[in-house]
Design brief:
The complex is a heterodimer.
Chain A lengths: L1 H28 L3 H6 L5 H11 L5 H13 L13 H36 L4 H15 L2 H15 L15 H27 L2 H8 L4 H30 L2 H6 L5 H10 L3 H29 L7
Helix pairs in contact in A: 1-13, 5-6, 5-8, 5-10, 6-8, 7-8, 8-10, 9-10, 10-13, 12-13
Chain B lengths: L5 H13 L13 E6 L14 H10 L4 E3 L6 E3 L2 E8 L2 E6 L13 H12 L14 E8 L2 E6 L6 H5 L8 H14 L7 E7 L3 E6 L15 E6 L3 H10 L4 E3 L3 H9 L3 E16 L13 H10 L2 H9 L28 H10 L6 E7 L3 H13 L2 E7 L2 H9 L5 E6 L11 H4 L11 H12 L3 H17 L3 E14 L2 E2 L14 E2 L1
Parallel strand pairs in B: 1-10, 13-14, 13-15
Antiparallel strand pairs in B: 2-3, 4-5, 5-7, 6-7, 8-9, 9-10, 11-16, 12-15, 12-16, 17-18
Helix pairs in contact in B: 8-10, 14-15
The chains are: A mainly alpha, B alpha+beta.
Chain lengths: 305, 506
């Protein structure tokens, strides 16, 4: 298993640096950072001065090398916008995003997997229909709309939950549901399809024939095989939730990393954007890596991959 | 930034209208007023941010030497008791005695000297240089007398000293610097800062030892400000009672909130002016806008009143001047180009474009206004290739002289002096697409004369020429809506600055 892990890890690092280099170049192509930094009142000379102070007049490769070298030592520089160290800024915002992401994926898994399993055991039953309806609705409903509806019902009409913010755990209930619900349908359909497929296979018949109990058949034999693609999907969804919860963070006024990334792009805050891209790509890499390892553990055949 | 799709607002407004909303209950009992900011404020240190939210904080936390009464526009002493011009470039101030900063440091001439010398130095990187770069240095005469030396004659000095230039505690600022000041602000103002989470959350507390300032005494004990980017969420918070006041509310939503009867909706104009900038200098190459007939045609093509009535609404007004009417020197006696599409077509024909022409048309905010403007232009035969850009990208193009026609706005940083707008754009800077020698000369006189009558005379010349030659097509002023719960009493001012010190409970 160790060579497999090492190989995956090496590949992961390569991906991280490719991503960071591409994003760095794209940011440079997207506009003059000096002009954006200078603000509304700046004259041409002000902008030239800023260009020199921040070193934007050097070749892009030199600037990237500079950034990379600092980043490797853990120094992500100072946010142009907030004038605060990027590392502490991101660390603070990641708490919210991580909490939301973990709660969201747990919510999605804890609802979608059981629903998928039940739907597969009783295909075309009422419960299967309900699950199908939920999944179609989840895919079709924009998350800002769902979020606003929850706010109107639970915060305004019923007065049960606070509308927005991140002060207590109660503030996270609605965002978790919105974020999780979006990831749910895909997980559920994949679980259902996988289970249906597996339940019809020979080894399940064999397991039943040798007298194994239905629970044991379902969870030990069927689910373990059906869950493998779900693990990979959940890893991708998790990465998506951490980087892509911009809408949810904006609707619920959670100042997380996704929203920070979105705003920083508009503000041309290069160091912040660059560090966030690295962090997000690392998340994707770590999660897909963990998913690979988990799958290899679930299915020994994959360890040779 | 205007990237919130309109339909989303409509959705929430609809849902709210259908719902039987509970009556809002404010935090009057706890003495805390809850307010929302829409934008993340970059740094509370007012010299190191350039946003409206920053001005709001600055007015609450710090004081200037002078204060301008927002009602009468009269200047009165604040941290200074009196002031006089020693010569054209020297101002002497007698300071108020017995004022202390929030951290207990006493306010005296040393604080003024330190603040002025720090912000005036370009290397220290004050974000909005024009707020401070007219000052050379400050000099202490005695503990409560100080002189500010100007680089050159600058009659708007008093206006700037009553606005963006506030006084910082020398000992504390020397140690904390802009970053420290941003995280733990210390001033002399009516409100002390209890807590700052950068960009997200600010808690203010009334300054019990506030001096006898023309700003008045704070009446609300605590102000809790949260940044909530989505206007719909702000409205939901207002409904659930966890916010007491929101501002910069779009017209359609403000109207619906007003109809509900539980909130006070106050509309006030802002100093922001919307205008079309035309490349009359021909910087973008061979463009029809170098011809005054074409520029006049554009001016006649726009139905300003309809834009105001249908889109901007509220207390917005039609303007024909390249400045905000209340600004000193912004005379209103100028050519008014009435809406007349036929005349516009005739002028175009006369200029040699009987079938019109096509041009690139840029904008960076208020897409729906820009689109309405484009349709007026299309109606007289000017085809527009419309491009919506980020502000910084458009400005970059503009500086490079590559923009033939654009929809621009300018808020003058709430500075009530025409120099903050006309002189910003017509003095051959990189954003000047006119480059008229006469206008430059006149503005130079108007900007530097210390004789008010002479200033008026020369602003009049410059503004009348800009208008006669139709260098721009000024169109309208902006407005903003403040919505607050019935328990709050507040009268907004026309400069778009939220003044906590003027708020009280009903």
């Amino acid at each position: 298993m160790l060579p497999f892990i090492l190989k995956r890890l090496g590949l992961a690092l390569l991906v991280a640096f490719t991503v960071s280099f591409i994003s760095f170049s794209l940011l440079f192509l997207s506009g003059d950072p000096a002009a954006a930094l200078a603000g509304e009142t700046a004259s041409g000379e002000d902008i030239e001065a800023i260009r020199r102070i921040y070193g934007f007049d050097r070749p892009m490769l030199v600037q990237y090398g500079d950034w990379l070298f600092s980043a490797l030592r853990g120094d992500f520089g100072e946010s142009y916008y907030f004038k605060l160290p990027v590392a502490s800024l991101i660390a603070e915002r990641l708490q919210v995003t991580m909490t939301l992401g973990v709660c969201g994926i747990l919510f999605a898994l804890l609802t979608a997997v059981p629903l998928g399993v039940v739907a597969a055991i009783r295909p075309n039953s009422l419960i299967d229909r309900v699950a199908l309806f939920l999944s179609v609705a989840g895919q079709a409903m924009p998350s800002f709309w769902f979020g606003l509806i929850l706010i109107v019902v639970f915060a305004i009409q019923l007065g049960l939950l606070p509308p927005s913010g991140a002060a207590t755990w109660r503030h996270f209930i609605m965002p978790t549901i919105v974020l999780g619900y979006y990831a749910m349908p895909a997980i559920m359909r994949l679980t259902r399809a996988g289970m249906l497929d597996v339940l019809g296979s020979d080894y399940i018949r064999t397991a039943r024939a040798k007298g194994a109990g239905e629970t044991r058949v379902l969870f030990k034999h069927a689910l373990r095989n059906a869950i493998i693609p779900v693990v990979s999907l959940a890893a991708v969804q998790m990465g998506f939730m951490l980087g892509g919860s911009i809408v949810v963070e904006s609707v619920f006024a959670l100042h997380g990393a996704g929203y920070l990334a979105w705003e920083s792009i508009a503000r041309n805050d290069l160091p912040t954007v660059q560090a966030l891209i690295l962090v997000f790509s690392m998340f994707y890499i770590v999660f897909t890596f963990l998913a690979d390892v988990l799958n290899a553990w679930l299915d020994p055949r994959m360890r040779s991959a | 930034m205007n990237r919130r799709p309109l339909d989303r607002s409509a959705i929430l407004a609809l849902t709210l209208a259908m719902s039987t909303a509970m009556p809002a209950f404010a935090d009057k009992a706890s003495g805390t007023l809850n307010v929302a900011f829409t934008k993340e404020l970059e740094n509370v240190d007012s010299y190191f941010n350039s946003s409206r939210e920053g001005v709001v904080m600055q007015r609450a936390v710090w004081d200037g030497l002078i204060y301008r009464d927002p009602e009468t526009n009269e200047y009165v002493g604040n941290l200074a008791e009196s002031w006089e011009w020693i010569d054209d470039t020297t101002l002497e101030f007698k300071l108020r005695e017995g004022v202390t900063f929030h951290n207990g440091e006493a306010f005296n001439a040393d604080d003024v000297v330190y603040t002025v010398n720090f912000v005036a130095k370009e290397e220290n990187g004050v974000k909005t240089q024009r707020n401070v770069n007219w000052m050379e240095s400050a000099e202490k005469i005695d503990d409560y007398t100080v002189r500010i030396k100007l680089k050159e004659k600058f009659p708007a000095a008093i206006e700037f000293l009553s606005g963006p230039v506030s006084m910082y505690p020398n000992e504390y600022y020397a140690e904390a610097g802009p970053s420290g000041m941003g995280l733990k602000p210390v001033g002399t103002g009516p409100y002390k800062v209890l807590d700052v989470v950068p960009g997200q959350h600010f808690v203010l507390e009334a300054n019990e030892n506030y001096h006898d300032s023309p700003k008045g005494q704070p009446k609300i004990e605590k102000i809790d400000i949260r940044t909530i980017p989505d206007v719909n969420t702000q409205m939901a918070e207002l409904f659930s009672g966890s916010l007491d006041l929101i501002w910069q509310v779009p017209a359609d939503q403000a109207e619906k909130l007003g109809e509900m009867g539980q909130f006070t909706v106050a509309n006030e104009s802002t100093m922001r002016v919307g205008y079309l900038q035309m490349d009359s200098a021909g910087r973008s190459g061979d463009t029809p806008f170098t011809d005054p007939l074409v520029r006049k045609a554009v001016n006649h093509a726009i139905n300003r009143q309809e834009l105001v009535d249908a889109l901007l609404q509220g207390s917005s007004k039609v303007v024909y001047t390249p400045c905000f009417p209340s600004q000193f020197g912004c005379i209103q006696d100028v050519t008014e180009y009435e809406y007349d599409p036929e005349k516009a077509k005739e002028l175009l024909a006369e200029a040699g474009y009987p079938d019109g022409f096509s041009t690139e048309f840029y904008a960076y905010r208020d897409r729906q206004y820009a689109e309405a403007i484009a349709s007026y232009l299309n109606a007289v035969g000017i085809d527009t290739d419309f491009k919506m850009l980020q502000y910084s990208a458009l400005r970059e193009l503009n500086m490079d002289g590559e923009v033939p026609l654009s929809f621009q706005t300018w808020g003058s940083y709430s500075i009530n002096d025409a120099s903050a707008m006309v002189s910003q754009f017509f003095k051959h800077g990189s954003l000047d697409s006119t480059r008229d020698e006469e206008v430059l000369e006149w503005l130079n006189v108007a900007d530097s004369s210390t004789d008010p009558d002479e200033r008026i005379e020369y602003y009049t010349k410059a503004i009348q020429k800009i208008s006669d030659e139709a260098f721009w097509a000024p169109m309208f002023t902006y407005n903003t809506n403040y919505v607050f719960s019935d328990t709050v009493s507040y009268t907004p001012t026309p400069d778009e600055v939220l003044r906590f010190v003027d708020m009280s409970w009903n």
